[in-house]
Amino acid sequence: MLSHTLSSGASSLIPADGVPVGWAVSSGLVDYVSAVALMEARVAAIAAGEAPELVWLLEHPPLYTAGVSSREADLLDAGRFPVHRTGRGGQFTYHGPGQRVAYVMLDLNRRGRDVRAFVRGLERWLTGALSDFGVEAGVRDGRVGVWVERRGLTDDGAVWSREDKIAAIGVKVRRWVSFHGISLNVEPDLGHFDGIVPCGIAEHGVTSLVDLGVLATMDEADAALKAAFRREFGPLEPEAPPV
Predict the structure, then answer these.
(1) Half-sphere exposure of 57 (CA within 13 A, CB side)
(2) Which residues, including other chains, have CB under 8 Å from residue 174's CB and lie 6 or more apart?
(3) Are strands 54-59 and 99-105 parallel, antiparallel or unpaired?
(4) Is residue 199 annotated as part of the catalytic site, yes or no?
(5) Out of 14, 146, 171, 199, which one is annotated catalytic?
(6) Residue 114 burial by CB count (10 A; 0-12/13-18/19+): exposed, middle or buried?
(7) Domain holding 229: CATH number?
(8) Phi and psi dihedrals of 45, rounded to 5?
């Protein structure tokens, strides 16, 4: 079976005060270094009580990021794309066009101060959004992210199966405010993942909605993410992207 059960916990992640989270979507490709600086500034403002929570959706130009647990041996082609060292959890991952990145800046002081429950909420957010496209996805013990199980027949009629990763999660918490977040493969160039061992897991592959035969646009993916986020974390309101 692909997924273990995602335990219920949404109620503790939705604050009782009903204050909406900002929902910002950037057009075009956003420079990674600039985005991280803007995210850091917003997180500091949230922690100081000077700004509301925010989810910021964007796309980056092709690049690799290295989390705090990354191993140099997992960077297979260091000269292919820029490599950025980052303070988020996890190992190496790829960002690029066709992949929806969501930087999630939530105040966990308002949401139970439970990092494990927060990560489970992110997992349910992603699996819920994918289910809107008819994609059955889940999580696996010992593997970060969201996975799909794929089956088919070889030329001689034998059944094959494998598990591919469709979404990544890498977060950090500072003063109980979260930052970094998730990435969902909508229609990226999957060959760009070949320059790394994604998340340190060599025995499994990566996939996307389009690779699975779901011809979703980025706007459609955003709509599914928005609906699923509301279910897990509460109300949203539109906000301009950080500048």
Answers:
(1) 21
(2) 43, 47
(3) antiparallel
(4) yes
(5) 199
(6) middle
(7) 3.30.930.10
(8) -70, -40
Place of tokens 């994918």: 130
**Inside any domain, residue 5:** no
Each residue's pLDDT tens digit, 151-198? 877 888 888 888 999 999 999 999 999 999 999 999 999 999 999 988
**Which range, of 1-10, 149-158, 169-178, 222-231, averages the lowest pLDDT?**
1-10
Domain count, the chain: 1
Domain assignment present for residue 27? The answer is yes
pTM of the model: 0.91
The tokens of 96 are what? 């690029």
Confidence at residue 11, expressed as pLDDT on a 0 to 100 scale: 52
Q: For the segment 101-119, what is each residue's pLDDT rounded down to a tens digit?
A: 999 999 999 999 999 999 9
Distance CA(143)–CA(147), nearest Å, equals: 9
d(CA 25, CA 185): 16
CA–CA separation, 174 and 105 (whole Å)? 10
Supply the range of the domain harboring residue 124.
Answer: 10-238
Coil, helix or strand for 18?
Answer: coil
CA atoms within 13 A of residue 63's CA, in its CB half-sphere: 16
Asked if residue 1 belongs to a domain, the reply is no
Domain-embedded: residue 243: no
